[in-house]
Amino acid sequence: MLRVSWSCCNIQNKGVHISVAPQPTDWFTEAGFGVFIHFGHAAHRGWELSWQMTGGVEGQFPPREPVPCDEYFANAADFNPSEFDADAWARTISASGAGYAVFTTKHHDGFAMFDSTHSDYSITRTSPFGRDLTAELVAALRSRGIRIGLYFSLPDWHHPEYPTMTDATTTKPYQIGSYVRTSPEQWGRYRAFFIDQLKEILTNYGTIDVLWLDGEFDHTAAEWDFAGIREHVRALQPECLVNDRCVGFGDFATPEQQLPEVSPSMPWEICMTMNDSWGWTLDDDRWKSTPQLLTNLAQTLASGGNLLLNVGPKGDGTFPAEAQKRLSDIGEWINRNAAAVRGIDRAPGGVRAPLPVGHKVDAQGEYLFIYCILRPWDSLTISGIPVNRIESVRVLGRDEPLQFTAVASLPEVHRSATDPSGELQISIPHDVSAQLVPVIAVTLRPS
What we know:
Order of helices and strands: HEHHEHEHEHHEEHEHEEEEEEHEHE
CATH superfamily of the largest domain: Glycosidases
CATH class of the largest domain: Alpha Beta
Strand order of the largest sheet: 5-4-3-2-1-7-6
Largest sheet: 7 strands, parallel
Number of domains: 2
Shape: elongated
Strand content: 15-25%
CATH topology of the largest domain: TIM Barrel
Structural class: alpha/beta
CATH architecture of the largest domain: Alpha-Beta Barrel
Oligomer: single chain
């Protein structure tokens, strides 16, 4: 998918050249949907990953019941996800329609979910599980053609040089900017450790497509040296994308939980939970319904972004049944509507509709996709469309065309526009409006 618009590019389709230079982020902007996996030893107790120590973040929903830091860290010794099956996870993620997956190799609590030679606080050395879970998962995902993203926390609340978080040194709930200040020498030792571990995950697991950094709020930009981090990544994995939490040096933006009011100007994804928690927790039963998640996906696609939907596996290493069901439902929807998921951009500015509208240009043609997140009863009106170029209107997954009328706007008629915009009115059969988030495709002829 090459990002283009009606107003700024010379677009010709159906075998004629489209002159747009490809960008390194093309695969990412075409993906549409990915799966985030937040997993760590906290799941053994049904605690939220890392944030259970602090009782959550001040002013941020939901609040958590804080646990003592020492108790939280000690939990790692009992973490044994004996039912973990990398192939089962990969099958579920592949069936969901995701083009990429991002796995938490290390969250803020410092527990490495990979085999690190620089720390004994890991799944291979502290946990009775004893295996490199990251290696197994990456291999299983890669075998199914799913691009690999690795999450890696900038902070490490367990490391003595960070220093280790205690009940006396942290606020409960956590206050942004309340981290412990250390000497330059101590900070230098921690940062060297951080760089060493970062090198491990970028050299031991083959090609990494995304490095998903987090926790930039926990020290200053000068202390982190984001430029140095980005160069380190580029030297080890030249094609790897890095998110914008590598502040000032990111390749894509990562709004969280809520669709941004204004879409970022750079490639972007929104990361979102299925309930209120990132990790699996015992008391969170506020699951978003499948229609709600599909609405979020449709709104994100029509805004030009990807949805990175999170699942928090249980302590035994299995996906919760609620998450399994939602991923399966999304996979069925994507399978039916794949053309309206891959390579979608925002509709040109003149298009106005009561529902989200996405735009796509590829080798087969130019399209507008209307995501029916609310039920259109008997008709649907879209304005600002080049009416003389409307070739067909249909529902994805169905062969029969929909009836429509298209009328140029009076100002366009009066100025004798050669490619006038106007109003498209589509007749909606009842059986279409009864479907779960049907997608209407408007095919446009070349200008």
